[in-house]
Amino acid sequence: MDIKDSDVPVQCKPFRQSAKEHCNFNTNKIQHQVYKNVKVQYTGEYLFKCNICDYCSMIKSNIKRHMRTHTGEKPFKCNACDYSSKHKEALKTHMCKHTGKKPFKCNTCDYCCTTKCGLKRHMYMHTGEKPFKCNICNYCCISMSHLQTHMRKHTGEKPFKCNLCDYCSTIKANIKRHMCTHTGEKPFKCNICSYCCISMSHLKTHMRKHTDEKPFKCNTCDYWCTTKSALKMHIRKHTDEKPFKCNICDYCSTIKSNLKRHMLQHTVENPFKCNICDYCGTTKSDLKMHMHKHTDEKPFKCNICDYCGTTKSALKMHMHKHTDKKPFKCNTCDYWCTTKSALKMHIRKHTGEKPFKCNICDYCSTIKSNLKRHMRKHIGAKTI
């Protein structure tokens, strides 16, 4: 019988010790629980209420669990580590870390995880569904927690605060990571090399250097990379998007760090000074590269030939000689090349642009080295 659709009124006596006295359902515990659900639907009355806040429930165990949010009690302790939890289910999930057990399996791919909600979230990758939508902008995501974090961008709320400095964040994990800057602690260690870091995600990314795993692929070209952020930056090459704009001049860039470095030109600030010569740079990496000139150090070595370079990008460029790879293509003709600067120079043939101008005569060139060579004519003429 469907109680919801029935016209029979539900009569209830005041609550006492037993189910028998509580209502006219004189049957087992399961039927009695059904009765309690029906009572709430008809009367809106919750049987169990928190005496500290407005929380109420029709199940006694829910109140018990809720009270731990007020008391901070964590009665469920792990017997393998220091972990403790307010809920038995959370401890059960935690224990999977020690046992390596992942009971929830995807029936589409090989993915498996420790929680039911983790599997549910994963399934959205197959369906493409993003059920949680922001009511202010177009943002949508696969979990309520992600949406809650996103909403703080609109509200400006940063509820997680550092108790040592003014730092505050929208995400709890960021505070945990930030605290390592005060303590100097780097708890996540690589078991292959001496690398250690402040977050599991950083370690995960680092491990891909050892495994050569590149899970993120560009759907426009053959580019693969180790991080989602690197893929995002790469895609901007195809879209020509430059979201990081200077508020003083027309400069804009695909990378935030490039804009930061550019802004130092406006402030005339070059904080990184060489202790051997007068050189000073806008970034620490610039100074590091410059120091190689004094030390003659070339730390980036080719694993195929004897070549070694002062920068990682120089080695990357060199490697194209071995692979015969030419990743930069002209979109006007069939020209391909190994470097972005070479492509830039080539494009000037199509546009007719000659940015390198002589300040003595009308000469101008597409290449800086040509202008340098040309200037020697004027210097030679003055000497004569």
From TrEMBL:
The keyword Endoplasmic reticulum does not apply. GO terms for molecular function: DNA-binding transcription factor activity; RNA polymerase II cis-regulatory region sequence-specific DNA binding; zinc ion binding. Residues 48-75, 76-103, 104-131, 132-159, 160-187, 188-215, 216-243, 244-271, 272-299, 300-327, 328-355, 356-383 form the C2H2-type domain. It is found in: Nucleus. The keyword Zinc applies. Its main location: nucleus. Keywords: DNA-binding, Metal-binding, Nucleus, Repeat, Transcription, Transcription regulation, Zinc, Zinc-finger. One of its GO terms (biological process) is regulation of transcription by RNA polymerase II. GO terms for cellular component: nucleus. Belongs to the hunchback C2H2-type zinc-finger protein family. Belongs to the krueppel C2H2-type zinc-finger protein family. This is C2H2-type domain-containing protein. It comes from Aquatica leii.
